[in-house]
Amino acid sequence: METFITNYYSVMSQRDWVAYKSFFADKAILTTIWQGANDLAPKLHTNSITEFLAQTENGPDSQPIFQERPIKINITKEKNLASAWVYYEAEFGTEDNLIQWKGYDVFSLLKFKDKWHIISITYISDN
User: Fold this and answer.
1) Cross-referenced InterPro entries, in alphabetical order (predicted)?
2) Could you give phi then psi for residue 113, rounded to 5 degrees?
3) Domain that holds residue 32
4) What dihedral do alpha carbons 99, 37, 33, 41 form, nearest 10°?
5) Which of 42, 102, 112, 115 has its CA 20 to 30 A from that of 84?
6) Strand, coil or helix: 19
């Protein structure tokens, strides 16, 4: 299970979106608290994996540097159900304007036909 999680971060950082999507159930959900440029206040923001992937050109693909690495992984597993709490570090931007942060991802996973699937990820920055 830890290998699954580390592979997830590696594939995401490589921006191999076809391989990235293969980690997820078809209708998986990604949720965070987000405040866009035109928002007056932060709000709960939810995307399906399909919606997330449709927006990568405005997110991870918009800068030459994008990488997330797990720092600490805590996994709880019961039969074909698992959760993983991951403390991660990230970099995004250019060499001259690099943003760095740390945060938490909480994965909900289900094993189906001998393969683990991400059902949801809830994430938040700790900065």
Assistant:
1) FrzH/put_lumazine-bd, NTF2-like_dom_sf
2) 55, 50
3) 2-125
4) 130
5) 42
6) helix
pLDDT tens across the length of the chain (127 residues): 999 999 999 999 999 999 999 999 999 999 999 888 888 999 999 999 999 999 999 999 999 999 999 999 999 999 999 999 999 999 999 999 999 999 999 999 999 999 999 999 999 998 6
Query: CA-based angle 67:92:103, to the nearest 5?
Result: 70
* 75 contacts 1 by C-beta, under 8 angstroms: yes
CATH code, domain carrying 63: 3.10.450.50
Alpha helices in the chain (DSSP H): 2-14, 17-21, 49-54
Burial class (CB in 10 A: 0-12, 13-18, 19+), 19: middle
